Amino acid sequence: MTTLLHRFTVAKLLRVACCRSVYSGPEAYPVFSRQDFAEDDGTWEWKKLHNIRQRVVDIQNGINHEGDKKIVDDEARKVHLLPHKIYSKPEEYYPLTDVAKVVYGNKTKDPMPKGIKHKMDPDFIRPEVQDLLKSLTGRDPEIVFAEQTGLYTHMPRVRLLTTEQLNQEIKKMDEKFDEMLEMPPVMLEREEIEETIAFDELLDGYEEGKLIFTDITVDLKPDERCMVVREPTGLLRRAQWDERDRALGVYYPKCGRSLHKDPVFENPQVAFKNQFHKNILERILVEFVPDSKEFIHYTQMVYDEIDKESQYDLLRSTRFFGGLAFYLAKHKSIDGLLKNILENKSSLPDAADLVKLFCLINNESNTARNLKDLNNCDDFRIVQVYVQNDATMKKILELSLQTFQQIPQSAQNF
Amino acid sequence: MVRLSWLLLERVRNFRKLQTTRERLVARNAECLFAGDENIQVYSKLDGVPRLKNQYAIRLAKHGCPNRPFYHIVLAKTYDDRDTEIEQLGTYDPMPNINNEKLCALNFERIKYHIALGAYLTRPIRRLLGLSGFLPLDPTLLIFAENLRRRKAIEQKIKSKESEDSEEKTETEKEVD
């Protein structure tokens, strides 16, 4: 009796019980309390479903009860009510009939000429190098989630959580860390496009300027868009990368990109004085493509400035530290960074990670030959071998290394 | 169809030359048969495609400000106003920018579609599509370019003659002095 009652009927009964009068008689309506329904798992509908699911599982396992046939017939009747094909996207519900595509030809997809592809630096892609760069950047939440001027910040919220919920929130923050510290790619410089389509000599001198034609068909990626230039001499050629970026900026602008070059990238002395290195790198990321000449040239300019003034702390636990370390290791100028790690940060494993990076990128150096088994050596030994072989600031690094020298056991007992 | 005119008679009357001619129409590409005669002249338009009244046309619609034109490439009917449109197929900027470039945008997919369904292309559109390489070059453009080159050559000759005359004058003045 108690298990079959619905929750709303309980409230009704309680109301009725409160306004029970003398004339209604003793126990006209039964009085139930909340404790009687504590064992109730839910509404009767859910109970029925739970029962049916259990029954189905029993049938699959081979156990039979009364009334199995009815359940099986009901389930079987539901199947033909489902659509015969389950659509995953709304586009499949409403297929658009593009007459031109079907009857008159396909879209004007123009593949890039002569197999020009975007090439990543092969040393940067290796998972060992990526792991080392991530461990070097660090994960300081005060810097990663610091307030950014111009962005809207919410008021802080206080919530009571269980341990399981706490662990889930920590997992979410780890994923956010990876998002914020995602390194911009280091790519090889893109080759110039030099392809002529036609040369009409009879058109010589018809105009005094160039004509740039762009293709405005819908649903094309910027690599597939055809851009063509006709010069006043009558030459028809494909547009070069400068002209391509400018035309895309006119017809398909992106937030943060501008068509004209900012003189900050040419004369950044004032910005460097005020320690705006990170802002300039973010600006470069937004405005330029990682393939382009300008991106590579300007990022290397910023990295050289940081290396000169030894201001590595500006980029620590940001997304740009990996690029810094990779650039320095490639051009064999790690000594400033090593000194910073040993003196200011005073952590040997980070210094050993740097030297491991150097060995992975420069396989033919003296340190790599001497350190063939990197896992078996101590961190101290790894850095020592590097200082002896390939370091330019030898004496300074040896001095800073002495602090990490292990005291022999005989001296410890004193 | 190509229109020819035949010179039948030439006479002088009161010191005035008069000509009597007759015209006839001839199939296209057949005027080469009559090319040898001196008395025959070909009066055909080079762009000889007929333009109907009720026809879809791809043409330039002028927007912008006074002394600053800017054209939209537009699909419209021939009897519509210049600036009305059914669909926009691109833009054309006739004024060069800082880098001495003229920008033109063309939606080739939709242009293909409308040409296949029989749209009429006006002369500037034919020139632009020929310059972009989508269609073969328009002969009016080549004639225009050749005339420009001839005019420039003539102007250069005049300038060189004037400079020579001025040099001769200075030399003669010096000699006199």
UniProtKB/TrEMBL annotation, chain A:
Q: What Pfam families does the entry give?
A: MRP-S22
Spell out the PANTHER family in the cross-references. MITOCHONDRIAL 28S RIBOSOMAL PROTEIN S22, SMALL RIBOSOMAL SUBUNIT PROTEIN MS22
Give Gene Ontology CC terms. mitochondrial small ribosomal subunit
> Any signal peptide, and if so, which residues?
1-19
- Tell me yes or no: is Protease among this UniProt entry's keywords: no
Q: Where are the membrane-spanning stretches? A: none
> Which UniProt keywords are listed?
Ribonucleoprotein, Ribosomal protein, Signal
GO terms of molecular function: structural constituent of ribosome
Native organism is Phallusia mammillata
Q: What is this protein called?
A: 28S ribosomal protein S22, mitochondrial-like
Q: What is the lineage of its organism?
A: Eukaryota, Metazoa, Chordata, Tunicata, Ascidiacea
Q: Which InterPro entries match?
A: Ribosomal_mS22
TrEMBL record, chain B:
Q: Which domain of life is it from?
A: Eukaryota
Family annotation (InterPro entries): Ribosomal_bS16, Ribosomal_bS16_dom_sf
The alphabetized UniProt keywords are: Mitochondrion, Ribonucleoprotein, Ribosomal protein
Entry GO terms, CC? mitochondrial inner membrane; mitochondrial small ribosomal subunit
What is an example of a GO molecular function annotated in this UniProt entry? structural constituent of ribosome
Record region (Disordered): 156-177
- GO BP annotations listed: mitochondrial translation
UniProt-listed Pfam families: Ribosomal_S16
**Is the keyword Ribosomal protein in the record?**
yes
Q: Where in the cell is it found?
A: Mitochondrion
Which family is this sequence assigned to?
Belongs to the bacterial ribosomal protein bS16 family.
Name of the protein: Small ribosomal subunit protein bS16m
Q: Which organism is it from?
A: Phallusia mammillata
